[in-house]
Design brief:
Layout lengths: L2 E5 L2 E2 L8 E2 L1 E5 L2 E6 L6 E4 L3 E5 L1 E6 L8 H6 L4 H15 L2 E6 L5 H8 L7 E4 L3 E2 L31 H13 L4 E5 L18 H13 L3 E6 L2 H10 L3 E4 L5 H10 L2 E3 L3 H11 L6 H24 L2 E2 L15 H8 L4 H7 L2 H6 L17 E5 L12 E6 L2 E5 L2 E2 L2
Parallel strand pairs: 1-6, 2-7, 8-9, 9-10, 11-12, 12-13, 13-14, 14-15, 15-16
Antiparallel strand pairs: 1-4, 2-3, 4-5, 7-17, 17-18, 18-19, 19-20
Helix pairs in contact: 4-5, 5-6, 6-7, 8-9, 10-11
Length: about 400
Amino acid sequence: MTRTVFHGGNVFDGTMAPITAADVVVEDGRIVEVGPGLDGDDGVECTGQTVLPGLFDTHTHVIFSTLDWVEELVTPFSFKFYDAMRNLEATLATGITTVRDAAGADAGIKKAVDDGVIAGPRMRISVNMLSQTGGHADGWLRSGVDLDLEWPGSPSGLVDGPDAVRRKVREMIRAGADVIKVATSGGVLSPTDDPRHPHFRPDELEEMVAEATAAGIYVMAHAQGADGIKNAVRAGIRSIEHGIYLDDEGIELMLERGTWLVPTLVAPLGVLDAVDAGASLPASTIEKARSVVDVHRRNVGRAITAGVKVAMGTDSGVAPHGANLRELEELVRCGMSPQQALVATTSSAAALMGLGDELGTLAPGTRADLVLLDGDPLEVATLRERVRRVWKDGVLVVDEGKVLR
């Protein structure tokens, strides 16, 4: 077997350990050694560069690219699958080699990546988000139009009542879900609900967690309002997505239960950027996006200060694909050090997803997902522009910004 040594550069190993000069040796798709003065059969010159673990985005929507309702309504249905190819490539080119898709991508898209039919990060999928009637993922509009679409492999997530919830979770697992996604509050993009209101009752949420646990998987919660957050944490849900109106009691509960926070700070910014670019969105959505930006940053900052576990996620599809690393700047703005932000998108994200033994760090035995970056990784504002090459399982997949097929 060929030993490839990445030599002459610095190494950020995915933890809070100091970034130091070191070599990384890869053999048969795995890291076998990390340290100074290593040798190998082949070499990758890294002088002036830093080797990082493959990055994570734990909240994506790779099948969505526009927030413009009119554009969405006139676009042929099958286009979204081809568009997902472009979105996956844009994500991979940023150095993100693993994503958790938070609704939209089905098992076919995941299989296409796994089988090498299309290029992209490895995927964990939720298939569709569970929503109560009138909730965040209910596509019925007061005009009488229903935007909900079902297709083979993507059952509707609309459900009410504990018994129906039990069956719906099983349907998602049957369709290939690696994680169950639920909306425990209203949202910004949904025009007829309020992100501060809790959705689903505790018995419904407990049923979801019980069924997911029986299948060996977790539940993630779109949870923006304080009560929806706390209901999710009490029910045993593993991660809170967004956490806009997180309060002191919610923070204490998350610390007590070990619940993760995935802030997606760039999501409302993405909505406002889309509006500035001319996207057609309801006035209520635009107003909600404007109203949450500051409170979102403030409450995420409080959670970071308190020591809540944080993993990086972007809500890409709401925020643009390929601009994922903007989230690191926002995390730093909320109080993380640049290295803590990098940990959030490497080892912490891997731990959230249950992949910490395989990914997220540069350590002997882990899979050889590597990013080669020009300069200092702690300059997070320019990180994306400095990603030079990306390896996934030891195979070069991005070279000088170009995704290789």
